[in-house]
Amino acid sequence: MKRRAIVWFRQDLRLHDNEAISTALRMAEEVIPVYVFDERVFSGQTRFGFPKTGRFRARFIIESIADLRENLRQLGSDLLIRVGKPECLVSELARDLKASWVLCNRERTQEEEFVQDALEQKLWSSGVELLYTRGKMLYHTQDLPVPVHHTPDIFTQFRKDNEHITPVREPLPTPTSLPPLPQYIERGDLPVITQFGHTDAESSSNAVLPFKGGESEALRRLRYYLWDKDLAATYKETRNCLTGGDYSTKFSPWLSQGCLSPKLVYHELKRYERERVSNESTYWIFFELLWRDYFRLMGKKYGNKIFLRGGTQGKPLKHLKNNRDAFLAWAEGRTGVPFIDANMRELNQTGWMSNRGRQNVASFLVKDLKVNWQMGAEYFESMLLDYDPCSNWGNWNYVAGVGSDPREDRYFNILTQAKNYDPRGEFVRVWCEELARVPADKIHRPDLLTEKERQEFGVNGYPKALVRIEKWVS
Question: ∠ CA(411), CA(358), CA(149), 5° rounding?
Fold first, then answer.
């Protein structure tokens, strides 16, 4: 009988630089790819009652699975698709197919660990071995100068310890062919988004990009950003912009689902530096990849602490409340602070928000509205196209002052930020239609409009500010 291995795809939805696929091909004559839509992730809720996977990310993942299946078919294989609990369905497949191994990418946060541990137990009872592979990080942990639990608590120290000495391994090649699946195995149908309780996943026409899931789109975006448009050469100057598809790489949705390997990004970036230009902007893209690794290492080091109210520092934060009314005003983009509302409305209508926007809305929720930061982190978990547990919760730890940050009182002056990054109010006008006719000198200060001006500019439907905007006037 042929040796058979099951490759359980998780957040590694690609064929390039896929250690699980490469290892399975070395070990077995038959390789069975499978993906399970975990019903707890796609139909479940967070602690505060938000959908765990919102409509935009659900659509993006469905598209990614469709693309993965098509790419596997082009290599002579196919993808088994199931809906349910992965630990049950994958173990049943392994038993029924008499597989010797199951290979999967190892995850390091609680919910994902629960599933992989439960699967390992079920497989053990059937005599099937679960083998873990890697693929989320730029670095291999065994190449780092210190063990994971000795990772510095300050990013700058981590960067200095690694950026010049730790190698980034070459990405593994894409297979040129795969063994066909036995005909008797049921392939399974790709679910539609309505199965997960969503009725509409169309983004606003104002979205910065028509994000589409899948490895094929990820590779197109990488080629477009680096080679077609030379945008890497000016990344540092444009990365804080708010409108348009080209101001930043926008790689993160594909990175978060593993449609794009960070090692491939790195080595393409190095090739770009050799063949086109090497400057501060190209370095800054590498710098962002380092942050991804750092947050993942913090997740490994501190485990569940990144999800707790006190964060990795264990601070009490008694002044932050689960104020549902204030939270809903923030989440729905009706705080009366245009820069905050515009960013939240963009998120709600597209699943995307710029890095500059994320920092501002997070600071506003925690520092100005005094709302429990965990509510914001869970809302982002639900809504973001590019949600990644370690990056999302690590960033919220950072803003709330309970994570790895040498500045404990990090605070954003929202009015200054708005004037610096949206000086004429173009971004606000896109998302806050009530303010479309307000002139640039007043777009960020609707609180100063007279009643006559509110009538003249048609802003009477825009809410009054929850905070005193003048407090940010210096």
Answer: 80
